Amino acid sequence: MAGPDATSPARVRRLALFALVAAAIVALDQLSKVAARSALVPGEPVTLVPGVMDLSLVYNTGAAFSLGEGGGPLFVVLAAAILVAGLVVAWRRADVPLPLLLAVAAVAGGGVGNAIDRVALGAVTDFFKTTFVDFAVFNVADIFVTCGVVLAVVLYWRWDLARERA
Q1: Which of the following is catalytic: 95, 117, 126, 134?
Q2: Catalytic residue among 5, 134, 142, 160
Q3: Buried (b) or exposed (e) across 119-145, using 16+ Cβ within 10 A?
Q4: Is 142 a catalytic residue?
Q5: What does the pLDDT read at residue 74?
């Protein structure tokens, strides 16, 4: 189902909202990474919440859990593809629910935030380290990518079920 015509204010609003959410996430991610790089020293964790979370500066050349080591260029292309696909959907598909579109914007924003690090630094800046469980060190972009993917899957599933019933 195609969206509204090219001059539709609704179409422009959806595109602008998608871009604004993604850009805000990129800005939040990059600001947090600048703060982490200026305040933390690799190998010298700082307690954030005792027994729960430390701030520990690490640089990751892979993806989640350091998988895909050395695949940086592929991850940059993937982030760009998700961003472009989201922008196209925002522009062309008025039938896609706004919450689903915004979940994709979160994934795109997080992906672009990490892509900026990959291009500028050759590695992603990570700094949140759980201390109550052995888990990967992560960053703000990772939070948005992970939560955005989970939310998008759930929202897509609900939307798809509703379309099947209609």
Answers
A1: 126
A2: 142
A3: eeeeebbbbbbebeeeebbbbbbbbbb
A4: yes
A5: 84
